[in-house]
Design a protein that fits this description.
By secondary structure, this protein is of the alpha/beta class. Helices cover 36% and strands 18% of the residues. It has helices at 33-45, 56-63, 67-70, 94-98, 100-115, 145-158, 160-171, 200-203, 225-229, 241-252, and strands at residues 14-18, 47-51, 73-76, 81-84, 87-88, 127-129, 134-136, 177-180, 187-191, 210-215, 234-237. The protein has a seven-stranded mixed beta sheet. It is elongated. The chain starts with 13 loop residues before the first strand and ends with a helix. It binds 1-O-phosphono-alpha-D-mannopyranose. 1-O-phosphono-alpha-D-mannopyranose binds next to loops. 1-O-phosphono-alpha-D-mannopyranose is lined by residues 135, 182-186, 188. Pathway: Nucleotide-sugar biosynthesis; GDP-alpha-D-mannose biosynthesis; alpha-D-mannose 1-phosphate from D-fructose 6-phosphate: step 2/2. It is found in: Cytoplasm. One of its GO terms (biological process) is GDP-mannose biosynthetic process.
């Protein structure tokens, strides 16, 4: 069944989802006129949406202030915040999911563990509370670039974060948490499954026959990997926004 609101499109049962950084825009930069024009043409044919890890304010900076009206679906923080045709859908947060009691235990364990680490330097913000996750940094998020680089080397040698994650996995094995050492000085902690596949639950009711996904970090360990390999999607790997435009023109016969 085609959703009424999409019935004006040429292929209303096809959804095309895009990662943001590296796929629609260069990393952390803004969208080009060429990408915008291509998306406007595409939207006449199919249903379109974006799904990024950043929060909505960052996505508005990158994709433009009118983005909620230019995409049929908008997913921030992998879909924890979601919009369909500009209307907000149910949202979710890490604290809501874990509850105050377990979060208290988790944060106390982390703070105790941090205080027992032997480290050459400590700065500030060791535990950052975010909407969809927590981020834990032994040196602290206030470290300068030089201090980040130093810490990264120290961590490689002493496996500080890897051991920390092992201890957390052991202590909190009853919670379905994923621990991800993605950056230089910290690791992220979030509920298992809160990767980009999280957004797919929001599109389920529209009964799409085909869901395409375009992303640049589709390799194992990349943050597009799970949705790219999900059975519900047809995955496309791109290196740049220019690649995205090229593939869209070919696939959907655009100008
Ligand atoms: O994108 C990878 C990671 O980037 C930052 O990590 P760090 O500060 O350790 O370099 C953080 O934003 C982290 O959440 C993110 O996963």
């Amino acid at each position: 069944m085609v959703a009424q609101e999409f019935s004006y499109k040429e292929q209303p049962q096809t959804l095309v989802l895009f990662d943001v950084d590296g796929t629609l825009t260069p990393a952390r930069l803004t969208v080009s006129d060429e990408v915008r024009d291509t998306l406007a043409q595409l939207r006449k044919k199919v249903v379109i949406g974006f799904v990024g890890g950043s929060d909505l304010s960052k996505q508005l900076e990158q994709l433009g202030p009118n983005v909620l009206n230019e995409f049929d679906y908008a997913f921030s923080e992998n879909g924890l915040t979601a919009y369909r045709l500009g209307e907000k859908l149910a949202s979710q947060s890490f604290i809501n999911w874990i509850g105050e009691e377990e979060y208290n235990k988790l944060s106390v364990f982390i703070l105790k563990y941090l205080s027992n680490l032997e480290l050459p330097k400590r700065r500030g913000t060791f535990l950052e509370f975010r909407n969809g996750m927590i981020n834990v940094s032994p040196i602290g998020r206030n470290a300068s670039t030089a201090e980040r680089n130093e810490y990264e080397e120290y961590d490689k040698k002493h496996q500080i974060r890897a051991k920390f994650v092992e201890a957390l996995k052991k202590e909190f094995s009853h919670l379905k948490l994923t621990f991800s050492i993605g950056g230089q000085i910290s690791f992220d902690v979030f509920p298992t499954g809160w990767d980009k596949t999280y957004c797919l639950q929001h599109v389920q009711q529209d009964g799409f026959k085909e869901i395409h996904f375009f992303g640049d970090k589709t390799m194992v360990g990349g943050n597009d990997y799970e949705i790219f390999t999900d059975d519900r999607t047809i995955g496309h790997t791109v290196q740049t926004p220019n690649d995205t435009v090229k593939i869209l023109r070919e696939l959907f016969n655009l100008k």
